[in-house]
Amino acid sequence: MIEIAKMIRREDCAKQLSALMSKMKFDWLTKDTELRSHKVLIEFLEKEVLYQIYESDCPIDESIKERIRHFHDRLKQVKTPEEVIDEFWNAIKIKGEVYDEVKEHNLIAFEDVCAKFAAFCYAE
Fold this sequence. Notes:
- The chain is mainly α.
- It has one domain (2-120).
- The protein has helices at 2-7, 10-29, 38-54, 62-77, 81-94, 96-104, 114-120.
- The chain is globular, with a radius of gyration of 15 Å.
């Protein structure tokens, strides 16, 4: 892991480690609890993050919008809550420039809703 960290920009490494730590904490806190349906989880992500980016008047780079659309398309194809959760955490780990672009326009990114999403995943 140290060798990999040396090859990655420091900021990227910090984001990936933070996402991994959040995911580990999420898994530990929520073990053996019933998940909400995949459709409800997708609706949450659409409302909290995706639609507000789509509907924004901010001049977001088209390649970034395309990556967000691609993620959204993948989400629509998943069949289980676990797959939605995995897509969410993987998106955080690999999309540094998407986060930077979204935050430049003061929009909400996946990283901003980590705790809220983790709590929401589990049915009350």
